Model the fold of this input.
Amino acid sequence: MQSQDVAQRPAPPSPSGPVVDVEQAEAALVEHYPRLVRLAYLVLPPGLGRSRRVLTAHALTQRALPRARTPAPVIPAQSTGRDGDPGYALVRLQVLRTALEAGLPLKAKAWPKRSQLPPLLPHVWGLKLFPRSGGADELALDQRLSTLSGPARAAYALRGLERLTDDEVCKVLAAAGVADPEGAFLEADGIPAQYGLLDSPEFDPCSLQARPTDLMRRRQHLRAALVAGAALLVCGALLGLPGEGWGPEGAAAPPYARNPAAQAALDPSKVTRMPASAWRSSARTDFSVWPARGDLTGDKALLRRALAVWARPGETVQVSVTPGTLSGGPAGPPQLLYAGTVDAARVVILYDGLRIARYAEPTDGTQGAALDFARVDGAGRAEAGAVVLGRSDGNVRYLTAPWVRKAGERDLMKPGSGAMDLALTDGVTAPLASPALRSGPCSSWNVLQVTDGAGTRLLTDLGELVPARLTVGRPGSPREVSGAAALHTWQPFACSLSIVRSAGVRSVNAWAFNEQPLPDASGSAAWVCTRAETWRGGGARVLAQFHTPGGTYGAAAAQAENVPACGPRDPHVLAGVLWKAKAGDWYLLAAGSRETASIRATGGVSGAAQSSLLTVRAEQGAQAQLKGTLKDGRSLRGLR
Done:
């Protein structure tokens, strides 16, 4: 393990800010858990190995919660969305401090710190967990970061992942106990500034792949355990222990038994194939009525390989699973949706009633295959409009539903430019640019536009097998994104879709819940709430966004996860933002849904309004707590 330039003595106390309650710290840790774990993963020494880094990153983050009220350090939280949150600053500092301690060399005459020991939990017996592999750029960046010291990796991560300035990075490193923050900063400057790659799945310890541990060593240990178990049974029989009766699993067959159901699920001749016209007369309009398409639907050898890999993926198979999706083999013969050649791969798409499984192998005969899963239970006509066939060279190809008559490509950020027609060949689209594969600044967001007998809808690639459906309108009664007004609603907020990539998203709705005149008479700002619903039900993400006239992008004023706000169960929402007028004055602007009767601000800003809009003069950096009252008398708290 490489040595790191971290002070061996306790860090000098940093200046204290406001006192943080345990509840406030817990809220910050839960809300920003994926970012904190990613930060710990980047700072931990690469010599630990990817699997142990994942477990250690989660363990350190979960132990960052203080045990009592704690003064928060006067250090920046984050420049986009977390600025000024003392709870986030406190838990981030603790995560950073313990991650740096984990890389310190062990001393012979001193007890090791808890962070230097392998974590006991979380642990899954027989499995190794590690992030999904990224591209060549991510691998090269990981190799460059492995040459840095721990403090230098921390400086690079804080500057790239947290968007802190140089002075802010030095302050955070000093508060974490780094003896020479400037030296760490200079060392980090030797690595190219590829900060956009830090958001890649390569460095995401919350989106993992599973592989078995050393199988030969496990087999040896199993043999030894069987010998010991046999000896124990002999001793038990000699002592008169009972030896009859049901086992813990009754009459169930042993694992991996060659029973008829398991064999049928792996037999390519038993794969279900729907007629081409089944969807026209079926009461259901979902993936279950898709016909089998592609030029390799008769290749039984290919189908056999796809089914076998689904049931038992080997070590060379790259497996990806959307959150909340089971990755086990099919319970019976699945339905074939596609088998054909896509770019440089042979692709098979299968459906088992709950999941879509995509198997891909290279056409040049080289080793390596990919297996992707997506949960699609409960899909209707709108959600079962397309499936991703493959991605390459920054483009994506879709297999569309048999009821899709026309496909097009549209830039969500240019609502007036129209849609460009895409060729459809047996349901397969021509390649179109994928926003999920793009890195760097967001200047466009291309989506798939499909047209069928029910109308036109937009689907966007979020890095998963099934594209997410985009809608607009009041929660509970959304409508498709068609027409100039609906397209202009999404225009400033298209880039915010990157926040919910690879999160198992089913649909994203944008609702313009209010409009607020600006205090300097420069126009009216739009308040829009975007809510991303998932296939698993939980994990919905809500963003309250603010857009001023003439601005290219909207600004996230508040965000939350697993809350009913802005959803069909409770469409009401309340959010606020600090806004600077052209003359230099600062204001607190707050807005609730139009059923809001009054809004009150307390804390760093005080003010009230007997309407759904609030405008109060404020100081730069002020923090306020918002509380509203609905017209029916119910209270409404501000979204954070």
Summary: Confidence is low (pLDDT under 50) at residues 1-16, 76-81, 238-253.
